[in-house]
Write a structure and sequence with these properties.
Length: 438
C-alpha cells in the first residue's frame, strides 16, 4: 500500500477528560431561566428532572472534567474511533482537497450518541435512579440510551417521534432488544400526548412534543430522571472525546484541517468534533480554521432562526434557554433526517455562532441524498441521513477547491451509519423523494 488512509489510536490514547469550551469563550453564556420566575435557574431547580451530579456538569466552569474509569471501560469497547481519508471521493470529485472523516458509526448503536448515553446512565446509577425517560428523533439517541441503561441495570422508556417510529421500525426494535419500552409520540401515555392527539389525531410529532412527554413521565413516576441526547452543556461536554481523538489523529496524518464540517440538529455531534478544535483556535495553539454547521432547509435553526430565550419543549416545561430557535411550537416537515428535526440549537453552539466562531449553511433533502449516494459509491459506507448533510457541504468545499486550485484539508464527522435508514435511500433512488420531505 503506497498511501495510508486509516489513522487509528491505541486504547491508551482514549481521552481521560472531557473538554468544556464554555471555559474558553470570550464572554460568558447567558444562564438558563426558570420558566415561572424568569430568574436564572439554580441547581435545586434542575434536580427535579436531572440527578445532581449531572446538573453540576451542566453548570461546570472548569476547562476539563475527569471521565470516570467505569465510563472509559465501556468507551473502550469501540473507542478510539477511526479517522479515514476519503481518497476515492477525492478522485471522483477531481479535487486537490484532502478529505478526512471521523467515523462514529463503529459504536454498538451505530452513532456517536453512546458517548453521552453511557456517562448519563452511569451518573444516574450513582445517584440511585432506577429509571430513565427520554425522547428520540431518528432513534439513534433512544437506542444508545437503551444500550447504556442495559449496561447499568436501569429501566428505560423512550418517546419516539411518531413519524420516525413509522419510518424507522428497526431502530425501535433495536431499543426493544436492549430492553427499552418505546412509545410513538405523541402518545396516549401522557396527559400532554393525549391533548395533542385530541387536537390532531394524525399528528406526526416533533422532538419538542416528545421532550414534553418524557419530562411529564419523569416528574410523575417515582425513581425516574430525564436524559437528553443533545442540546445541553453536559452532552456537548461528553461528546468532546470525538474532537480530542481527532486532533491526535490529524497529527498522525501529518495535516491540520482548514475547514471542519458537521451536521446540526440539537448540536451534539458538531460540538463533539468542533469544540476541541475551536478551543485550540481560541488558545492560539494552531493555525485557525473554519467551522461549518450544516442543517436541513426545512428546519433551518441556525440559518433562519432567532437568537432568543425559548423553551426546549412544546409544553413549556423546560427552563428557557438562550439559543437560536424557530419557536418551540414549530412543527417540522417529515424529513428522514429525524435527528435534525429540532426547533432549537444547543446554547453552546448558539453562543459560538453569536461570537462568529462558526458558520452555518442549509440544504434540501434531495441534495443531501445525492451526496450520500456518491459517498456510499466511492467510500463504501452508507451514511445516516443526518451526516449526509455534512457530506453535501464537504462536496461543495471540495468542488470550490478544484475550481480555485487550492489544496485544502477538509475534516468532517460521519456521526453514524445509515443501515437502518435504507427506506429513505429507497425513496431517493426511486425518484419519489420530494425536495424538502419524503
Amino acid at each position: 500500500m503506497s498511501r495510508i488512509t486509516r489513522f487509528s489510536l491505541p486504547a491508551s490514547e482514549l481521552p481521560k477528560q472531557w473538554y468544556n469550551l464554555a471555559h474558553d469563550f470570550s464572554e460568558p453564556m447567558p444562564p438558563p431561566l426558570h420558566p415561572g420566575t424568569r430568574e436564572p435557574v439554580s441547581l435545586a431547580d434542575m434536580t427535579a428532572i436531572f440527578p445532581e451530579n449531572l446538573v453540576e456538569q451542566e453548570m461546570c466552569p472548569d476547562p476539563y472534567v475527569d471521565i470516570p474509569e467505569e465510563v472509559r471501560e465501556i468507551y473502550s469497547l469501540w473507542r478510539p474511533t477511526p479517522l479515514l481519508r476519503a481518497v476515492r471521493l477525492e478522485k471522483a470529485l477531481n479535487t486537490p482537497a484532502h478529505i478526512y472523516y471521523k467515523y462514529e458509526g463503529v459504536s454498538p448503536a451505530g452513532s456517536h450518541k453512546p458517548n453521552s448515553a453511557v456517562p448519563q446512565a452511569y451518573y444516574n446509577k450513582q445517584a440511585g435512579v432506577k429509571r430513565l425517560a427520554t425522547e428520540t428523533g431518528a432513534g439513534q439517541w433512544g437506542a444508545s440510551l437503551a444500550l447504556a441503561c442495559q449496561m447499568f441495570g436501569l429501566e428505560c422508556v423512550v418517546y419516539m417521534v411518531r413519524v420516525s417510529f413509522n419510518q424507522k421500525p428497526y431502530r425501535k426494535l433495536l431499543m426493544q432488544t436492549w430492553g427499552a419500552t418505546v412509545h410513538p409520540s405523541p402518545s396516549l401515555e401522557t396527559e400532554f400526548g393525549r391533548k395533542i392527539l385530541a387536537e390532531d389525531p394524525d399528528c406526526t410529532g416533533s422532538l419538542g412534543i416528545a421532550i414534553s412527554e418524557a419530562i411529564e413521565d419523569t416528574v410523575k413516576t417515582p425513581d425516574t430522571k430525564y436524559a437528553l441526547g443533545s442540546v445541553l452543556n453536559h452532552v456537548c461536554l461528553h461528546q468532546s472525546v470525538i474532537g480530542q481523538e481527532c486532533i491526535k489523529q490529524m497529527e498522525l496524518a501529518g495535516e491540520d484541517p482548514d475547514v471542519i464540517i458537521g451536521c446540526v440538529g440539537g448540536g451534539s455531534n458538531f460540538a463533539g468534533m468542533a469544540f476541541p478544535f475551536i478551543g485550540r483556535n481560541l488558545q492560539g495553539d494552531k493555525k485557525p480554521c473554519r467551522f461549518v454547521a450544516v442543517e436541513p432547509e426545512s428546519c433551518p435553526t441556525l440559518t433562519k432562526g432567532e437568537l432568543q430565550y425559548d423553551f426546549g419543549d412544546t409544553a413549556e416545561m423546560t427552563p428557557l434557554l438562550m439559543m437560536y430557535s424557530l419557536g418551540h411550537k414549530f412543527m417540522p416537515p417529515s424529513i428522514h433526517s429525524g435527528g435534525l428535526r429540532y426547533h432549537g440549537m444547543s446554547p453552546m453552539v448558539s453562543h459560538a455562532r453569536k461570537l462568529d466562531l462558526i458558520e452555518a449553511v442549509s440544504y434540501p433533502q434531495d441534495q443531501i441524498f445525492e451526496s450520500a449516494v456518491l459517498f456510499a459509491r466511492t467510500e463504501g459506507l452508507v451514511p445516516a441521513p443526518e451526516p449526509a448533510h455534512a457530506i453535501r457541504a464537504v462536496v461543495d468545499e471540495a468542488v470550490r477547491a478544484r475550481e480555485t486550485g487550492e489544496k485544502k484539508v477538509i475534516l468532517f464527522n460521519l456521526c453514524g451509519h445509515g443501515m437502518l435508514d435504507l427506506a429513505a435511500y429507497d425513496l431517493y433512488l426511486s425518484g419519489n423523494m420530494r425536495q424538502t420531505g419524503d
